[in-house]
Amino acid sequence: MTTVTIYTTQFCGFCAAAKRLLKAKEVEFDEIDVGRDSALRQEMMHKSGRHTVPQIWIGETHIGGCDELYELDRAGKLDSMLVP
């Protein structure tokens, strides 16, 4: 399965929803909590150009946040992105 990376914070409802969808699809993901680490938040902002969480990558592709993740799933595109 393709590597999934998700930048999160501890009390983020959108982060929880994104992780819930990934877990429902039995997708393992690397979670990076930026809530207490300004260097990691800066890394996320530099890579994504955004300051909100979650920020999600599937492989090398930045797909955006929770809304974009769910839109990919509704459009039937998410599953194919998850397989190498």
Automatic annotation (TrEMBL):
InterPro entries: Glutaredoxin (IPR002109), GRX_bact (IPR011900). Keywords: Cytoplasm, Electron transport, Redox-active center, Transport. It comes from the Bacteria. The keyword Electron transport applies. The keyword Cytoplasm applies. Residues 4-63 form the Glutaredoxin domain. Belongs to the glutaredoxin family. Has a glutathione-disulfide oxidoreductase activity in the presence of NADPH and glutathione reductase. Reduces low molecular weight disulfides and proteins. This is Glutaredoxin. It comes from Maritimibacter dapengensis. The lineage of its organism: Bacteria, Pseudomonadati, Pseudomonadota, Alphaproteobacteria, Rhodobacterales. The gene is grxC.
